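Help needed: design a sequence for this.
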């Protein structure tokens, strides 16, 4: 299925490619249809009224005998409607559902949706779907194939699960089944996902992964993984990879083996992975970096001990902060995700979670995101709070998934089945509030971060109080509402906050125009669109550059109350730089910057020797650097008269 927002993250459909490969190996012609990709390139544009007919026409174009649909919790209702329509149009087509979206819904719901699907895969599907296709092709009894549920006389039946697969023996994904060049170009982030295994042995109450995989940790051998990376490099030139595994660091003995092997044999590839913060320590992170690890996703989950305990997570955030410091020390970039909206989450609990979000940025996280708790079918938290589930109704629009009216109607009719479209309302705030928290937190990790950090650490406000105050001014854009919030401050905090607002406003002008797109897709990098300033200069009465030199601690000190001139410019497409100028340097900058190279050299030749020439020469170097930046305009010479001469001549 497709995402309703074309700015959302976009990835290679690895699950489909993993399924296609063994099918092909067994002689079954296989076509992979990725409607998300076709939507991105403009080849598939469904509307609310015709989405089902157009989708089914596209899926039936290859005249399939078997139609396999992979689904998440968000796409399962649409997949069921597709299956029902396909079976109406082509009764002879066998419809098979798989993917994590089936968990917790089937087998119980199979009699209810027997007209939509013939077989539902239970667990891994790579070899199960191949065995099913073999049975259908051979004319043997497909209901005897292990790894599926089917419906017999109104009852869900199964021959049992598929035997655990040795992932080393599964053929490499069918990368040639899709236009990989387009995926590499369009996907975000622009690194290549590689499926290396599944499963987790932990019991987090909000997650269904460990239960789905029977608390089993399954992963390919390091040599098999490296062979696949080398293949992808030969065929597509990729050198950066993201390992897809639910919890890569789950099993320490395997991680030790992997790191040792890659340290010895990996001579060119960078890779990223997902870990729990309590599964890695500083020495292990250092070894991972030496083996090629450049990026880690870390689930921080919550900030308060109460919520962490309720989740069955770590007893505190101690290991989370150890991970932040260690990753920064060894030079591994990292990103995090924290869950809000958990049952019984108080304002204090939310504040502690927001502290984790912004502390991660202060420690150098490339992204620190939030998600609102989704009560997934099959998760322990969903069953525990089933009586407190509230259907999202208007909140469906915030999920991002393409949900036309008939899909919404099915969700409404079967809300007890599709719990992922609900919110647990128990001792916490309403769902819409947490969506606002998510949006504003994403905003402040990208814009006005220093100001928000100071309001927390230097002005005595809380993150929650700042967000609540901005929501009271919701019709105003954030950058217009912030001055009203600052108007309530007094004395030194007011001056410092005002200077930080000016400075962060300067930075924001260089970050690109797609603010809303960034908030939808946390991986989208700021782009330069339209007219951009060459540079910005501001006279401030607070030394903000020194104030933010350590982003972990942005507070007020009396010695920061001194006149400072700040220049901001784009050093490269991805980097914005700041110059802090003394009054003398500012005078030289204002005299030299409007000139071209020849004009600067002519003016420098007229400056008397000594300290003035040293300062002017250094500033001329900065000016040349700014002129080499991506936003630099064409230069026009100007006359040689200058206040510089009357000041220093």
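Sure. Designed sequence:
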């Amino acid at each position: 299925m497709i995402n309703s927002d074309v700015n959302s993250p976009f990835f290679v459909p690895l699950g489909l490619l993993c399924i296609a490969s063994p099918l092909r190996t067994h002689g079954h012609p296989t076509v992979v249809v990725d409607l998300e990709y076709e939507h991105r390139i403009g080849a598939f544009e469904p509307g609310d009224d015709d989405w089902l007919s157009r989708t089914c026409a596209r899926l039936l174009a290859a005249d399939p005998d078997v139609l396999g649909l992979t689904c998440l919790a968000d796409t399962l209702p649409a997949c069921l409607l597709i299956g029902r329509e396909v079976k109406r149009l082509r009764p002879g087509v066998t419809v098979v559902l798989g993917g994590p979206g089936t968990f917790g819904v089937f087998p119980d719901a199979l009699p209810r949706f027997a007209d939509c699907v013939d077989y539902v895969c239970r667990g891994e599907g790579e070899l199960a779907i191949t065995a099913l296709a073999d049975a259908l092709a051979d004319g043997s009894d497909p209901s005897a194939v292990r790894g599926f549920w089917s419906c017999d006389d109104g009852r869900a039946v199964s021959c049992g699960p598929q035997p655990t697969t040795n992932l080393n023996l599964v053929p490499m994904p069918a990368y040639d089944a899709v236009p990989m060049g387009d995926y590499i170009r369009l996907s975000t982030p622009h690194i290549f996902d590689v499926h290396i295994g599944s499963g987790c042995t932990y019991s987090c109450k909000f997650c269904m992964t460990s239960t789905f995989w029977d608390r089993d940790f399954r992963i390919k051998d390091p040599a098999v993984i490296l062979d696949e990376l080398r293949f992808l490099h030969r065929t597509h030139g990729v050198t950066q990879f993201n390992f897809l595994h639910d919890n890569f660091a789950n099993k320490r003995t395997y991680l030790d083996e992997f790191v040792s092997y890659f340290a010895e044999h990996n001579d060119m590839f960078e890779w990223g992975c997902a870990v729990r913060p309590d599964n890695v320590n500083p020495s292990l992170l250092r070894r991972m970096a030496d083996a090629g690890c450049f990026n880690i996703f870390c689930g921080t989950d919550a900030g308060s001990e109460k919520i962490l305990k309720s989740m069955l997570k770590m007893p505190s955030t101690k290991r989370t902060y150890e991970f932040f410091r260690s990753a920064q020390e060894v030079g591994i970039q990292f990103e995090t995700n924290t869950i809000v909206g958990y049952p019984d989450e108080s304002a204090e609990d939310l504040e502690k979670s927001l502290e984790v979000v912004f502390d991660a940025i202060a420690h150098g996280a490339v992204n620190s995101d939030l998600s609102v708790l989704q009560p997934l079918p099959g998760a322990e938290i969903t069953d525990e709070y089933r009586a407190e589930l509230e259907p999202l109704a208007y909140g469906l629009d915030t999920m991002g998934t393409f949900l036309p009216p008939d899909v919404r109607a099915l969700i409404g009719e079967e809300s007890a089945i599709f719990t992922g479209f609900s919110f647990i309302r128990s001792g916490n705030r309403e769902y819409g509030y947490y969506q606002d928290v998510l949006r504003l937190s994403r905003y402040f990790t990208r814009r006005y971060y220093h100001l928000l950090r100071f309001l927390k650490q230097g002005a005595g406000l809380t993150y929650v109080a700042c967000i609540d105050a901005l929501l009271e001014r919701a019709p105003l854009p954030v950058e217009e509402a912030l001055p009203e919030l600052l108007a309530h401050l007094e004395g030194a905090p007011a001056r410092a906050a005002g200077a930080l607002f000016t400075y962060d406003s300067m930075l924001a002008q260089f970050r690109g125009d797609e603010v809303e797109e960034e908030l939808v897709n946390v991986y989208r990098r700021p782009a330069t669109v339209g007219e951009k300033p060459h540079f910005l200069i501001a006279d401030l009465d607070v030394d903000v550059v020194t104030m933010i030199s350590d982003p972990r601690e942005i507070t007020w000190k009396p010695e920061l109350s001194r006149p400072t001139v700040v220049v901001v410019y784009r050093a490269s497409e991805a980097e914005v730089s700041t110059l802090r100028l003394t009054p003398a340097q500012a005078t030289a900058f204002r005299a030299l910057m409007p000139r071209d190279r020849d004009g600067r050299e002519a003016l420098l030749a007229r400056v008397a020797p000594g300290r003035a020439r040293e300062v002017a020469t250094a500033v001329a170097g900065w000016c040349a650097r700014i002129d080499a930046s991506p936003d630099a305009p064409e230069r026009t010479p100007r006359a040689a008269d200058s206040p510089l001469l009357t000041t220093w001549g």
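Residues 491-508 form the longest helix (18 residues).
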